[in-house]
Structures are given as structure tokens and as C-alpha cells.
């Protein structure tokens, strides 16, 4: 850098005008005349200086400034030996200024110098910066840019508002007035050399708590702009670099730790993802891999992603009613097609857990505590709590929950009432996306948020009074946006082909009270498989099991921090959610007494009737995580070493027993060569719509045939399957296809090993069922009671099967 040496601070002036200039020979002279003329005419005793920063110009820019200084010595020239960008030029100019106020303006004076008066008023009202805006009501655009440039500018500003400086509509207008000392501090700390410096400076002011006003100005596009199309990409690149640089090392380490925890949880499967299976998923891993595969197949062939007849033929499967997670399975299509559904599902679940933990961490740091260690611990509990680990075996829709903290934060922003329409639109888009990730988790999250809001409103009526109007308005905006976007998919789900009314889960889907205080099977230290199995539906539905030490710790935190409204609201939310999770009938432990539960009020209501009520206890996971973060933060701030030691010891004692062990994994059964090597194609004419019929038909208890189908790239259809579909005239939801006589017979043999008397009536019914299924061949793989199954099929078909490619095959084209 070169230029005039600046004097001591005693030469401070009222106003410094900084003009970055690169090859501005043709426009700079007029700009200097206009600026100096206006400042002289002000005649109010204001002292001023004009600093032109030549950014390595190759034309006569410097000569223009030199000539101007002869007539007006208050014009100064600062030079850079080479062109480095507007950001570098502004940094040189502002740091060389003496003004109590600093105006930065472009050499084209697209915003005329007379607009300085409006910015001055904002600064006089206590703002630290007043930035000219073309997008604020009251602004006047006298001459527009080219439509393409305007569109690029709007798109860029949208990204900038979302990622860097929310609430500022026009960051790039080259007419800004700053408090001098704060401007010099911000520009001295800046690092960007390009047009992105405007964003960096405004972000610095925001973080420092210095108020910024956006002031409407009169603006007219001037020819000779130095902005080129690639500069927009450069600004986005600088914005990305700025965002990355703003990430604290502790935050990055937290995310990496969450990723490591997720990988360790699934380590058994990642040893060999294509050939390992999570046995505690029961048949769900086969189902979910099939969901990912069929979604990718529908996308690549431009088929309806909401329906398929690959399973459950000929009736098919309503995919929207089966939570196929289109919000993940669709964008994962390239991975599914390239690496296969097993790896795609594994990545979705591993990265989904990581993203969920990172989102809870972000929310806790933003809204609850600043202490990173406390936030990390709370987010880890919210994400890797025992019920989350249980669902991590089999249910990605209940662990890929990264949208929930974002939705909660956006709802809280609505309560603040600053940008209601914008926040309502964002909330509507978030809710729409979450519907395509999982509707039941969204329903549970809404229940938790409602419980929290009611408790908070009762405790702080003043806050509720101020918040309910913007919240109601924002929720209305969100609803108006969301409903049209999801209307067709939801109509298909509830009224389309193979839709159903509700899924019945029996009378024992609620948690036992003991389950809330016991330990889950996969808790590393205190896990107890026998106890967990006795108190849960299955290994994928251990929906409580927080352990009594954590419950005791949470109680202590609530008592110790009871004066905080947020603690009261969290406590109410957690307790009510735990009570609701006990179901409509609550058995009193160690007695024969059963009392009505509060869930009875909801159990027969639309949507709620299909919810497994035990899952409501999952609401307690983030509640406990946030309470834990608050407790640790309070302990760290305590001035007493003894209190810190006892408190942190209690935290460790509560968490160590529930640290999750890696999920069980086993070697996966090989796909029979008959399927893997394509031998089936000689028996099933897919062009005529024929199906391959596994024996017995796949169902929720035995869905290995879904794995066969994905291994065969979904080239054949089959009846039966593992999905939710309607049954009977009432269209009650059941797991699997509607049963037929032959499928029921084979099912009974599969689970009992008893072959009934099979006469002409059974054989006639089997022929009807084979015709209904358009069966080309029956296929029996080695399995339990396979000898009995083989005998039953031989009697139904009237001839023995053939051993082909590791399976028994009955070609139905042959006459019996």
C-alpha cells in the first residue's frame, strides 16, 4: 500500500467520504465535483475529507484525483499497487479516515450524495450504521438495472439474508454511513477483498450488538458498472468462506463428535454394510431398504412416487401412507442407484442422527445456554437417549429429526414478532418438508411444543399477551403456504388407492410406569435385555427407559432452577408427556389395579388413533437434554468448587448408565442364486404381468423376500409384503397385504409346522389365489419348517417342486 501519511488523531473531522475506484477515469471527476460541491454548500461548519482509494487502476484514475486535489486539498488519494477488489480498497480507505462519521459510496453515485441527509438522521437517532437500501419501502428506483442483473441481485440477497444478516433487505447498495470508530474497527478486522465485504462488515456490527438501520434512498443505475456476471458467484464464494470462518472450533468439534458417536452406534453394520443386518430391527431393515429402492426406481423411471404394485400385487402399496421419507429417499436416489439401498439407508440413518444432534446443539446454544460443553451434553442426550437408540435399529423417520429444532426456533422467532410474514413462510416450508420426513414425529413435536407453550403462558402471562398475536398470524401464514403444497400427497395418503383409516396396535402399546425408570437393552453399562423386553413391545419400541438416576437428576435440576420460567415449562412438558405415554389404561406396578390414563382422551381422535402411545415419551428426550444443559451451565457458573464437583459427579452418575452400546449386527443371509443370478427370469414373464410368489408370502414377520426384490433391482412383482394397507370394508389398517386362503394356510404352516388336510377345495382355492396374484412361479427357500411348507405346496399344486439355484421352484405354467 502507498499513499499520504496520516497525521495524529487531533486532525479528526466530522465526516470522511471513502470512494473505492478502479478504472473510474470517466466517472470519478463528476462524482468528486458533486460530493465536494454538496459538502461546501452545506455551510454548517462541518469539517470533512474525501478519500479516494485507487485499487490498482490502469487508466487515468489517479490523474483525475491528483487534479482534483489541486482545487480541493481535502481530497486525499490512497493507492494500492495492484487491483485486489472493492473490499481491499474500502479497508484501506476506512482505516485511513479520521471522520467521526464515515460514508462509503461508489464512484458512480447511483445513490446521489444528497441522500446523505437521510442516513445522517438515522445515525443521529442512535444507530451505529445507516445503510442505503433499494428494497425498503420508500426507496425510489429512477433507472433499473438489466432484468438479469436485478434477478441475480434478488437471488443473492435472499441467500445473504438467510445465511449471514437476516432482516437486511439490501446489503449491496454502495451507499453506507457508519460511526467512524466502529467502522475503523470493523474494517480493520475484515478479511474479504471482494464485494462480499459489505456482508462481512454488517455481520461484524450485528455480532457486536451495534444497531444498523436500513434507510430507503433514491437510486438510479449508472452505465459503466464494474460488476461482471462471475462477480455474483465470487460474492457467494466469499459468503461461504465468511460463514465457514464464523464457525467456532468448539462447534466444529461438537459436530465431529456427533458424527463419531453415530458411526460407533452403527459400527457393526458399517463393517460390511451390504452383508450385515441389524437383528433388533426385526424385518424393518428389509422394509426400509425396499422403501429407498422403490423410491429411487420411481424417480428414475418418472413413476408416481406415492404408489407401487411391486409389493402387495395386485392391490399395491400406498407409499405416502407408509412413511417412505420422500424428503430423504428422493435426494438419496443417486446414492441408492450407485451404491445400493443398504448403503443409502445406512448413510441416511448415520448422517441423520448426526444432523439431529447438531440441530439440537445449535438450538441450545442459540436459545438456552452459551456454554458449549453444556450444550453438547444436552444435545447428545436429546439425540442418543435410550428411546432414540431403540428406534435407531429400525425407524429412520424417528431419528432423522433435524428439522424439529429448526421448527421450534422458527416458532420462537414468530413469538418475537419482528418478521412475522417471513418467519411464517419459512415455518410453512419447514413443516412441509417435515411431512415428507415423517408425520408422526411432527405430531409428537407439535404436542410437545403445545404443552411447553401452555405452561410458559401460564407462568408468564405478560409474554403470552405480547406473543400470541404475531404467533397466530405467523402460524396462519405457515398454514396457508403448507396446505396447498401437501394437499395432494395427503389426499392420496388418506383417500387414495390402498389408503386406510387407522392402524390398531392393541391395548398394550403404552409404557409401563416402570419403563420410565428402568434401563434399555442397549444401555452399555446398565442395560438389561430381560427387563427391557418385559416392559416393551419389541427392541425397536423401547420408548422410555431413561433410568432412575437421570430422572432423579432432572428432578434436582428442576428444584434448583425452579425460579426460571423455562424450567417450569420444561418440567410440565416432560411430566405430561410421560403420563400420556402410559396409554389409555395404566397398570399400577406390583398390583392388579388398572386406572384410566390421560391418553384415553385422545386415543380415538383422528391421527392420534394410529399413534403408538408409548412413543409420546420420546418428547422427554429433548426436554431432559435441555434441562441437563441448563443444569451444567448453572454448575459451571457456581463460585463454589464443592458444588461444581458434587453436581458434575451427579451428572456423570446419571449419564454413564445409559451410554448406548453399538447396535447388534449379524451376517446377513445370502440372496439365493435363483434370484441373484437371474434364474427366476425363466419362470416369470414380467412382460405379461406375472409375479414371483415366495413361500410363504412375505409379511411383517418374514420379509426377506423384499431383500430378494431389491437384489433383483425390482424387476419382478410379488404378492404379500411388509407395509401398512387396508383390510375389509372398514379399511382398517393392518401390517401386510389383505390375507387370502392360500396365504393364510402357508402362514399357519410356517409358524406351526403343521400341514392340514388339503383336498380339492383347498386346491381349487389355491388356483383362484394364484390367478389373482398372476403367479408365474412359487419359490421356497430353506427356512424353518421348510419340509412342511414344501409338503403343503406339493399338495396344493399337485406335483413336486424342482431344486434350482438354492430354492424349490414350482413352475405354474406346467400342468399338475
Q: Determine the number of helices (DSSP H or I, runs of at least 4 residues).
A: 30
Mean pLDDT: 91
Shape: elongated
Q: Identify the strand order in the major beta sheet.
A: 1-4-3-2-5-8-6-9
Query: What gap, in angstroms, lies between the N and C termini?
Result: 96 Å
As for the number of domains, it is 3
The proportion of residues in beta strands is 5-15%
Structural class: alpha/beta
Cα-atom Rg, whole angstroms? 34 Å
Please give the largest β-sheet. 8 strands, mixed
Q: What's the total count of β strands?
A: 22
Secondary structure: helix percent = 40-55%
Transmembrane segments: 252-271, 342-363, 442-459, 471-495, 545-562, 569-588, 616-636, 645-663
Organism: Streptomyces acidicola
Membrane topology: Single-pass membrane protein
Enzyme class: transferase
Question: What's the layout of helices and strands?
Answer:
Blueprint: E1 2-3, E2 13-21, H1 25-42, E3 48-55, H2 61-71, E4 75-80, H3 86-95, E5 99-105, H4 116-124, E6 129-133, E7 140-143, H5 147-163, E8 175-179, H6 180-189, H7 197-207, E9 212-216, E10 218-220, H8 229-246, H9 249-265, H10 267-270, E11 276-277, H11 284-300, E12 307-308, E13 317-318, H12 326-329, H13 333-339, H14 341-367, H15 372-384, H16 386-392, H17 403-416, H18 420-435, H19 439-459, H20 461-495, H21 529-534, H22 548-560, H23 565-580, E14 585-587, E15 594-596, H24 620-637, H25 641-655, E16 666-667, H26 673-676, E17 691-694, H27 704-711, E18 724-727, E19 732-735, H28 741-752, H29 760-773, E20 775-780, H30 786-797, E21 802-804, E22 807-811
Parallel strand pairs: 2-3, 2-5, 3-4, 6-9, 7-10, 17-20
Antiparallel strand pairs: 1-4, 5-8, 6-8, 11-16, 12-13, 14-15, 18-19, 20-22, 21-22
Helix pairs in contact: 1-2, 3-6, 5-8, 9-14, 11-13, 11-14, 11-27, 13-14, 14-15, 14-17, 15-24, 17-18, 17-20, 18-20, 19-20, 19-23, 22-24, 22-25, 23-24, 24-25
Main location: endoplasmic reticulum
Protein name: dolichyl-phosphate beta-glucosyltransferase
Catalytic activity: a di-trans,poly-cis-dolichyl phosphate + UDP-alpha-D-glucose = a di-trans,poly-cis-dolichyl beta-D-glucosyl phosphate + UDP
Amino acid at each position: 500500500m502507498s499513499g499520504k501519511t496520516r497525521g495524529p488523531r487531533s486532525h479528526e473531522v466530522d465526516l470522511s467520504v471513502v470512494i473505492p475506484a478502479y478504472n473510474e477515469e470517466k466517472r470519478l471527476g463528476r462524482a468528486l465535483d458533486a460530493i465536494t460541491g454538496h459538502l461546501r454548500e452545506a455551510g454548517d461548519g462541518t469539517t470533512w475529507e474525501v478519500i479516494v482509494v485507487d485499487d490498482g487502476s490502469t487508466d487515468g484514475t489517479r490523474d483525475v484525483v491528483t487534479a482534483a486535489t489541486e482545487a480541493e486539498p481535502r481530497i486525499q488519494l490512497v493507492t494500492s499497487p495492484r487491483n485486489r477488489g472493492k473490499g481491499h480498497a474500502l479497508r484501506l480507505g476506512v482505516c485511513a479516515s479520521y471522520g467521526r462519521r464515515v460514508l462509503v459510496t461508489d464512484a458512480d453515485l447511483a445513490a446521489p450524495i444528497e441522500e446523505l441527509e437521510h442516513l445522517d438522521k438515522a445515525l443521529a437517532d442512535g444507530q451505529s450504521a445507516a445503510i442505503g437500501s433499494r428494497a425498503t419501502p420508500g426507496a425510489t428506483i429512477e433507472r433499473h438495472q438489466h432484468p438479469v442483473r436485478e434477478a441475480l441481485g434478488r437471488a443473492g440477497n435472499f441467500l445473504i439474508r438467510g445465511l449471514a444478516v437476516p432482516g437486511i433487505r439490501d446489503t449491496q447498495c454502495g451507499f453506507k454511513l457508519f460511526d467512524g470508530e466502529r467502522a475503523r474497527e470493523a474494517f480493520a478486522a475484515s478479511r474479504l477483498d471482494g464485494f462480499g465485504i459489505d456482508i462481512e462488515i454488517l455481520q461484524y456490527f450485528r455480532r457486536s450488538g451495534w444497531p444498523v438501520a436500513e434507510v430507503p434512498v433514491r437510486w438510479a443505475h449508472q452505465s459503466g458498472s464494474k460488476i461482471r456476471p462471475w462477480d455474483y458467484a465470487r460474492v457467494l464464494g466469499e459468503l461461504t468462506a465468511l460463514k465457514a470462518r464464523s464457525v467456532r472450533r468448539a462447534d466444529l468439534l461438537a459436530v465431529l463428535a456427533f458424527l463419531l458417536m453415530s458411526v460407533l452406534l452403527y459400527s457393526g453394520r458399517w463393517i460390511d454394510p451390504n452383508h450385515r443386518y441389524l437383528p433388533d430391527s426385526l424385518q424393518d431393515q428389509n422394509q426400509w431398504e425396499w422403501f429407498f429402492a422403490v423410491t429411487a426406481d420411481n424417480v428414475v423411471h418418472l413413476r408416481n412416487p406415492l404408489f407401487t404394485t411391486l409389493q402387495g400385487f395386485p392391490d399395491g402399496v400406498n407409499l405416502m401412507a407408509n412413511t417412505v421419507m420422500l424428503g430423504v429417499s428422493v435426494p438419496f436416489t443417486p446414492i441408492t442407484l450407485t451404491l445400493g439401498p443398504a448403503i443409502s439407508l445406512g448413510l441416511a440413518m448415520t448422517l441423520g442422527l448426526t444432523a439431529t444432534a447438531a440441530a439440537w446443539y445449535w438450538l441450545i446454544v442459540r436459545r438456552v445456554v452459551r456454554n458449549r460443553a453444556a450444550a453438547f451434553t444436552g444435545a447428545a442426550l436429546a439425540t442418543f437417549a435410550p428411546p432414540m437408540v431403540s428406534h435407531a435399529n429400525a425407524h429412520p423417520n424417528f431419528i432423522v429429526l433435524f428439522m424439529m429444532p429448526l421448527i421450534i426456533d422458527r416458532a420462537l422467532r414468530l413469538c418475537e414478532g419482528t418478521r412475522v410474514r417471513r418467519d411464517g413462510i419459512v415455518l410453512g416450508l419447514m413443516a412441509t418438508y417435515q411431512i415428507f420426513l415423517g408425520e408422526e414425529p411432527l405430531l409428537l413435536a407439535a404436542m410437545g411444543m403445545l404443552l411447553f407453550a401452555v405452561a410458559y403462558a401460564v407462568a408468564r402471562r405478560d409474554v403470552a399477551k405480547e406473543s400470541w398475536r404475531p404467533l397466530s398470524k405467523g402460524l396462519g401464514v405457515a398454514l396457508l403456504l403448507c396446505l396447498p403444497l401437501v394437499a395432494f400427497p395427503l389426499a392420496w395418503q388418506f383417500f387414495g388407492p390402498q389408503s386406510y383409516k387407522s392402524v390398531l396396535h392393541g391395548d398394550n402399546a403404552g409404557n409401563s410406569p416402570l419403563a420410565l425408570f428402568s434401563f434399555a437393552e442397549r444401555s452399555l453399562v446398565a442395560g438389561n435385555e430381560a427387563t427391557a423386553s418385559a416392559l416393551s413391545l419389541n427392541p425397536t419400541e423401547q420408548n422410555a427407559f431413561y433410568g432412575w438416576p437421570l430422572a432423579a437428576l432432572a428432578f434436582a435440576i428442576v428444584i434448583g432452577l425452579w425460579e426460571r420460567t423455562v424450567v417450569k415449562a420444561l418440567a410440565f412438558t416432560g411430566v405430561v408427556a410421560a403420563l400420556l405415554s402410559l396409554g389409555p389404561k395404566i397398570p399400577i406396578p406390583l398390583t392388579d389395579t388398572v386406572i384410566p390414563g390421560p391418553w384415553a382422551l385422545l386415543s380415538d381422535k383422528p391421527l392420534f388413533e394410529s399413534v403408538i402411545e408409548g412413543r409420546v415419551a420420546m418428547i422427554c428426550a429433548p426436554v431432559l437434554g435441555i434441562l441437563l444443559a441448563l443444569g451444567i451451565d448453572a454448575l459451571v457458573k457456581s463460585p463454589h468448587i464443592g458444588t461444581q464437583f458434587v453436581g458434575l459427579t451427579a451428572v456423570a452418575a446419571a449419564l454413564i448408565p445409559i451410554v448406548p452400546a453399538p447396535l447388534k449386527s449379524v451376517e446377513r443371509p445370502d440372496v439365493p442364486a435363483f434370484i441373484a443370478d437371474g434364474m427366476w427370469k425363466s419362470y416369470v414373464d414380467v412382460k405379461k404381468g406375472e409375479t414371483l410368489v415366495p413361500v410363504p408370502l412375505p409379511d411383517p414377520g418374514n420379509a426377506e423376500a423384499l431383500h430378494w426384490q431389491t437384489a433383483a433391482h425390482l424387476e419382478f412383482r410379488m404378492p404379500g409384503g411388509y407395509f401398512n394397507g387396508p383390510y375389509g370394508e372398514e379399511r382398517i389398517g393392518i401390517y401386510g397385504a389383505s390375507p387370502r386362503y392360500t396365504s393364510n394356510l402357508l402362514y399357519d404352516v410356517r409358524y406351526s409346522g403343521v400341514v392340514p388336510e388339503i383336498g380339492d377345495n383347498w386346491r381349487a382355492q389355491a388356483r383362484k389365489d394364484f390367478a389373482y396374484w398372476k403367479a408365474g412361479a412359487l419359490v421356497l427357500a430353506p427356512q424353518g419348517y421348510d419340509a412342511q411348507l414344501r409338503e403343503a405346496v406339493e399338495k396344493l399344486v399337485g406335483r413336486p417342486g424342482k431344486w434350482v439355484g438354492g430354492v424349490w421352484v414350482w413352475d405354474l405354467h406346467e400342468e399338475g
